[in-house]
Each structure stands twice: as structure tokens, then as C-alpha cells.
Amino acid sequence: MAPDNGHDHDSGPPIPTYDEAVAGGTWQHSDRSPLDGDAEGQSLLTSRTPRPYQHSGSTQNGGGRRPRGYQPPTAETDDEDSLLGSDSDTDREADHVRREMQEMEIDDSDTRGMRNRSSWGKRIGLSLPQWRWRWRWRLPQLRSRQRPADPSSGAPSGDGEVAPETTPGARFAFPTLGSTALFIIVARALAIMLVLGFLYLVFVSDLFGDMARRMGSGMFDPASVRRHIKHSVDPMRIRATLKHFAGYAHVAGTSGDYALMQDTVMLFQKYGLEDVTMDTFNVYLNYPKADGRAVEILGPDGRPEWSAKLEEDERNEEKIGYQAMAFHGHSMSGDVKGPLVYANYGTREDYEWLKANGVDTKGAIALVRYGGRPKNLGWKVKEAELAGFAGCLVYSDPADNGFVKGDTAPNGPYIPADGVQRGSVSLTNHIIGDVLTPGWGSEDGAQRMRLDQTAGLVKIPSLPLAWRDAQVLLQRLQAHGNRVPTPWTGGVPDIREWWTGNTTSPVVRLKNEQDVNERQPIWNVYGRILGSEQTEKKILIGNHRDSWGFGAVDGHSGTTIMFELIRIFGDLAAQGWRPRRTIEFMSWDGEEYNMIGSTEYVEANDDLLRRDGVAYINLGAAVRGNNFHAAGSPMFYKLLLEVLHDVQDPNFNDDSLRVLWEQKKSNLEGLDDDSDYVPFRDIVGTSSLDLSFDGSDYPAHSSYETFEWVDQVGDPGFVYHALLSQFVGLFVLELCDRPVLPFDIAHYTNSLGRWIQGLEDWARTLGDSAVSLEPLVDAHHDVVNAVREFVKWERGWEATVLANSGIEPPNLSGSRVAYNTKMAHFESDLLDSLGIPNRTQFKHVIFGPRLSGDEIEYFPSIRDAFVSGNRDLAAQMVARVADIIKKAAARLLE
Known about the structure:
Keywords: Membrane, Transmembrane, Transmembrane helix. By secondary structure, the chain is α/β, with parallel strands linked by helices. It has 29 helices and 20 strands. β17 (648-649) and β18 form a beta hairpin. α8 (222-232) packs antiparallel against α24 (719-737). The longest helix is centred in the last third of the chain and has 30 residues, at 774-803.
């Protein structure tokens, strides 16, 4: 049900529908078919009409084999005759019948004097040369049979003679039993019944719909499909979508979020996705109260001498809707006070420096800045809690994200004086998703933990601040405590000297009273395009719909790209195209709090995803600059380079993205732990990839992250939204439609060797050589040997198909599907069913978050054991991880 609008945090203006928002705009041309008026698009439409198939004498048809099934021939021919051409004389009819029999591969021994030697097979494209075929569907020629002419009649015969007139009685006489006329009547009645039955099958049953799905992309030229995807991207349609979705605040679970969920369902259906469904999960969320937050400096009498503004200046409310209040998601409620202490970035090292220099932090209020390490906001607050602070304030310093670095919003990428960077203080390195249901979905009837049992929440209150408020606090610290080290000095102006503060500092009150709901509904939306060959195997594309404010970058730059892809793939599906593997689009809710929507979906579908999840592509803060960025599984490395080569940047002389990427010495990076790919990678082992165009910075999670900022500063003309749409569309096409899954398992193997070497180097820095990592080295050798044998099959398959003129023999189809499945399962075979000790929600033996922070660490269970100092546990984890890797290698060769 829709959320109750009675709460202050839910209030807002009437929310327009998507159609109302874009009606009357300047993008009317976007409503035309993507194929209209586009030469390359028209080639796709043409390719849907199968071309004539040449007889066995042609050198282009592979020796007379008839293409069949899921992969099309390249439709290039000079024959433009009508599909229903008619011949008028007997000789042409005889020739036509011979051609029909040759094309249909019927044994016409009387006519041809030989048996047809063709074998049925599947034509393979995309990754193999595109062969030319001439193949035409024909309808049978219908000719009326004339009676022999009677010279005495008045009717003309075939030779121009006159046939005799028939009497009325003779013309309408009821046919006698056994007569030819009765036979014709019965035959016609049966024919009518057959036609009616055919119409029933077509219009009532789904037989032919299922056949069309099984035909898949077999009636489409793959090169034309690629061109269609690339040239159908419409930047102005993307712009209109973003303008609507970033038109008002929509924190997870609020009325704005609910309205966008309804718009998402409508657009999924409008653009042609199948099985559009919505999930509701009931999860733990908190919301601010308008009068429930305060940051005050108290005088000697305990009364406020100064109060922080907390909220940003209103930014043209009528134009962009109401602004979300400033707060921390999953923060703890409380009303605390204590002396103020400045602690730089709030790292463990910073708190240790304070302790070493005599600063008493117990019961104090910490003031820390965004940035540094850990980047994870929750861990900054957790470290303050562990250091004994009663509360924590976090501000955006101009030296990290403000005027010191360049122009500020709305005219530049950095946060201005009143800008407040909201965020979540969930401890994502311990629990992701609903913090009260770790390991299982938050569905009706699910068991729930108590708040005091969960390891996913901090236990002290916190609030975000603008630097204009932090400035006053820093000024009041003069001559209290110690002068800070030079690296601790920020960029806030008018601070004569930077001091730490101590027990003599001004007393600060931090009040954070909230609305808390342990069963707040949030809503995921799903839709798909069913595959034709491996329907159960899924290529997943996801983006989160909720945001801390207007969310024009995070995550609606990704939302608009996903909708553009849905529109394009939906148009292909409407024309009869089908991928080999199912494409599923997901709109997540609750990502900003703790990746809740995606995690609950994964936990509720754990077994299904381990079995059928092939790849997950994430689009979060997808466009915030012009530098292409990719992070994810090494499985995608080779395909990434291929598709980068096919997309050109018009702002850089139309150089390919690959050229620009290599010029900047970029590489496929590892994933961290702060977006919706985490549950897919760490819980079910689905190979995951995060894609974006990055920039210097953007006014993240503030009320300055608006459509206007993206339109004028972030991506004028929506060039990079369009480029990323092209890239993701082509990338997904290859994943879902190549006969052999384009995974780079060899690159994964090489990366595994580097990760083991990195672990050895790290272990040496601890000065503890008592635990041998040799079992991991041996496991890597097993993977190398297994992969060396495994990939031979693909080379042999490709050679066979090429030798067979691009046709896959029937006996190889099942083997190819099994080969794809083993490759897709390799990462899910690297899961430990027991999980990381004390963090059992994370099950991947290679990837996972740090124990105290958010940087990616390879082999997290082994590192945790080393850090704990428990050598026996470390040796056990090394042996266990090595055994899991060995078994994954062995399964490749089963």
C-alpha cells in the first residue's frame, strides 16, 4: 500500500505522472519508431524478412545446408523479387516447383536424379564470420483447375473455344454419393476446420508465441541488431526521463518513492517488458523529524548560545519540489551533549593520535569530515563510538569537496557552503540489506532480530553538517586541546588556527529524535525479455530508484539509461527478436540505506540466482563526468575491450572509448562494497560489473544534485548518458546473445594468481610467517591446468562450426549449452556455505569487504583470521579456501 502521508518527511507537492511531466516538451520526434528515417535502422527491419535460400550449387550457402533455428544468416542479396511472385506459363511453374523442392530439401529424385545431401543444423553468428545466404519463404501457387473445353459450348476454353452452357438443374444438382463434387465439399469442410483450428492456435493459445520465443534472434542479422541498439539511443528522451524522476525528493519508503515505483511499473509495461512484477519488503528504516534535530553550543547556564541551521537554503521550491531534510540513514536516536573534539577524517589512526596526545574523548562530541579512509560513513561513526564519543557530526570540508578545489554548485561540481551531504551510517562491512534479517528475505512472517542484537547499526547518534555550520564549531575550538598536525588542516575559511579541543572545549548538544519503523514497506520492480535458447539463464541489469534528495546523478543517471535500454530492447522484442538468454531489468529500492532492495531480492532468490544468474550489470551514479570507469569481475575483461572499441566519443574527435581508456592507462578495477552489486557478488557469486562515466566530483546527496545541475554542468546535451546507453546496450547484447558466453575465464585465472601474490606480500608485512599460503598456490595451479583444458573445447567448437560453413551440427548444441553453464557457475562455485566467520552473510572466498572499512580485500576470511592473531584459525581458513578453489577447478572438467 502507499505510504502514509501524515509524516513530515513524507509531505510534498502533488506528484505528476511521467506522461504529464514530459507532455508538451520539445522531444516529440522521440515518439517515432527508432527505425523510421534511419538507413541503418531500416536494415534491421529489412533483415526480419528472410532472404531466398540458394540451391546446393551456390558457393555461398555452405553446400546446400539449410540455415535453421536461433542464429540468422546475414541477409544480403541482390534478389529483390516479391515473396509472392506468380508465374503464368507451365514451364515457369515447373521451374518454380523444382526450386521449391530444392529449397525445402525434399528428395526429388525424378527431377534432380540425386538425394539431397543437406543436414539440419544451427547457423552461428556474432562471434564468427557472417556468411551470405539466399533463403526465401514461399507460399504455394494456387491455380484453378479448368475442365476440358467442349467445342459445342459457348464458354471459352483454354484455347479460346466456347464451352457448352449448363442447365440450372445440372449446375445446382445435389452431388451423388461417391461423386467428385461430394469429395470436394468434404475436403473443403475439413479445410475450414483446419483453418479455424489454426486461428485458435494463433489467437487463443500461446503455441506460436512460444515458437517465436524459441526462434529467438534467428530471424535477425546480428550486425543490424547492433546498429539498431547503437543508433536508437535518444539523448533528449533520456533528458526528459531524468527531468521527471529527479523532480522531487524520494527517500526510500516515502510517498515520492512510491509514486516513482508506480511510474516505473508503467514504463516497464509501456516499453514492452514481460512478467512485470513488484515485490514489497518490510524493512527497518528511520526518518528525521522537523523538530527532532538540533546542534547547539551551550552556555555556562546550559542554554543554547548558537544553533546550527542544519538545512540547506531552499532552491526554487516551485521548480524542483520540496527538499529532503538533512539526516543520516540508520542513525541512532538520542539527545546527548559533551565537549567538542575535532578528529580529522575519523579514522582509527586519527583517534589513536588524539589518545597519544592526551585528548580525552570519552563522552565528547566528535566533529569529523567526509573523505579519507575509511570512505564508509558508517565506519567513521563506528570508530567514534569505539573511541568513547557520545555523538558524531560529519561535515563536507571545502578542501575535499568545495571551493578550494573549484567552482561550486549550481555552477560547478563541488558542494557550496550550505550544501549538506546526506548518507547512511549502516555498517555494510558487517551486514547488508535489512539489518534485522541478515541472511534471509524480509518477507511477511520472516523472523526478525531485535535492534540490540544486530551488528549492522552504530550505537551513538550522528548528523551531517554543511561547512558553514562546522565553521562556527571550529572557531570555538581555538586554544582548546592541541594544535592539529598539518594534514588535519581543512579548507574552511576564517579559521585562524586549527585545534583539536579537549575536555575544556565548548559543550555541544546533538539531538537526533526520529521516526523509526521496523517494518517499513519498500518496493522493487522487475521486468524481463525471455530468452529463446537458455530461457532460465539470466543477464541482470539493475539500478536503484531511491535517493537522499532529488538524486539526479545517484542513482537517476543510471535509471534513465536503464529505461532507454528497456525501450530499445522492448522495441526489438516487439518486432520478434529474442535473446538466447533472458534479460531481466531490476529497479531497486532502499539502496541508499544499506543496499536493502537488492539484498532482500538476492536472499529471497538465493538458490535460483546461484543456478541461473549469469551476470549482473549495475548502473548507480552512472554519469558524473566524461571518464569511462569499469569495475568488476575479470570475467568481463575481454568483452569490455571489444565493446569499448565500438563506441566513439564525439567530444574527443570520435575516438573510440577504448583508445581514450588506454590513453589514460585505465584498467578493470575491483568492486568495493557500496552499491547493489555487493549481494550478487558476495552472497550468490554472480559475476558483477559496475559501469559509469566519472568526473572530478559532483554535489553528492545534497539538494544541489538536481536535473538542472546535470543539464547545465554534469552532462550538457546528455552526451555521456547516450554513450553509456550505447555501451551497456551492446555489452548486454553480447552477453545474452552470443552462442558461447563471452567470459574471459583465462583472465580470471591470471588475476587469481596476482591476488594470491598480493595476499602473500600483505602477510609478510605482518611479520607472521607461521601460516603457510602454499595450499593457495597449489589451488591456483589446479585452476590453471583446468582452464587450459577447458578452453580447448571452445576452440574445437569454433573450428568445427567454421569448417561446417557457419552451421553448428546438432550434436554440439547441448555440449555448448553445458559449456556455457560451467563457465557461468565458476564464480558461484567459489562460495563458502559457512561464510566469513562472524560475518556469515558474505560467502565469496575471494571477494568481500574489509573487517574495518570499505576497501576491497581479496580473501577476506583469511585476512580476518590473520588480523585476529589466531594462527590456528588462519591455517584452517587457508586450507578451506584452497579446497573450495580446487573443487571449482575440478567442476570445469566434469
